Amino acid sequence: MLGFGSNRKQQDDHLPVLVQVIQDNSAFTLAQKVWQENLRAVRVEPTTHKEFLRFGLVKQGQAVWFERDQGREDSFELILTWHAEGDRFADIYVITPSNVQGSSGDVAYIGKVFEALLTTPATLPVDKSQ
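-> structure tokens emitted (130 positions)
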């Protein structure tokens, strides 16, 4: 989904990616809510067998991918992609519940992203035909 594939001609060899782990119960609860609210739009990626949602954003080249492994309910992956100055970027957040006090990662930012996905009409799941 991020341009990785077996076809070397189409593979993006220079995709700057930042990966963060968010271990926080409130962020995980919001992730579950986004998933449940959009359950009808969930698709399965045939190569990786991940269940996913794709949200289209206003600017061209921006997208939000929200996914999890099939049959797994203890973690989600949130992937934000965008273009800037001709380059492509991605931030990946792995969201899990926490069994300890406190949290890791930028929980406030992830909370804002999930709240926007839940309340902003411009961030709708992309039609299955696209």
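The chain has one domain: 17-113.
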